[in-house]
Amino acid sequence: MSGSLPYVLILYYSRSGATATMAQQMAAGVEQVAGIEARLRTVPPVSPTCEATSPEIPEEGAIYAELDDLRHCSGLALGSPTRFGNMASPLKYFLDTTSSLWINGALIDKPATAFTSSSSLHGGQEATLLTMLVPLLHHGMVYAGVPYSATELLATQTGGTPYGSSHLAGPRSDRSVDEHERALCVAQGKRLAKLALAMRTMREEAP
């Protein structure tokens, strides 16, 4: 990444690797759009044990997000495995620290989207995506799902919703992200990047 281009922040938590794979496909879609780039970030796990700590830099994958990553992004893709129809605690914990961005309106009129993975086909994917958009709306962001112009929505027999991309990981969470699921992630990232550029121009032209 050059550091000079606007970027879409792809912020995710992944336990078994599927959500991380989806994030990478989302980034590939963003990178198909000229004039903008993808920035992959994750969040550390949370623990009920107060003494538990995580390394400052993960052993593998994306580095941990900071508030400035969110503050300066032109668009946001939020990814999480399903947890009883809601996002995973580590991601929720990070979002709960963003009050300073809310107070300053840092994310108003920026486009956002979400993606998720679950072990079972009816394991709360759509509920998770819908609950993930709630804090984004509180921040004044503009939510963008996946339109049916992404024809994989009509062909998939596993993951994929108009509310955002999804993945069926299987009961052992070892099923790979398939062709349709990957294509939907790429399409979602590409759409978000285009919206981010357009809305960035809109914000710059606002009085």
Strand content: 15-25%
CATH level 4 superfamily: Flavodoxin domain
Instruction: Count up the domains.
Output: 1
- Report mean pLDDT, rounded to a whole number: 93
The low-pLDDT segments are: none
Note the total helix count.
Answer: 7
Q: Determine the N-to-C terminus distance.
A: 31 Å
H and E order: EHEHEHHEHEHEH
Helix content: 25-40%
Over the alpha carbons, how many angstroms does the gyration radius reach? Answer: 16 Å
Can you tell me the overall shape?
globular
The counted number of beta strands is 6
| CATH uppermost class | Alpha Beta
Main sheet overview: 6 strands, parallel
- Indicate the CATH topology: Rossmann fold
| Structural class estimated from helices and strands | alpha/beta
Instruction: Please tell me the CATH architecture by its name.
Output: 3-Layer(aba) Sandwich
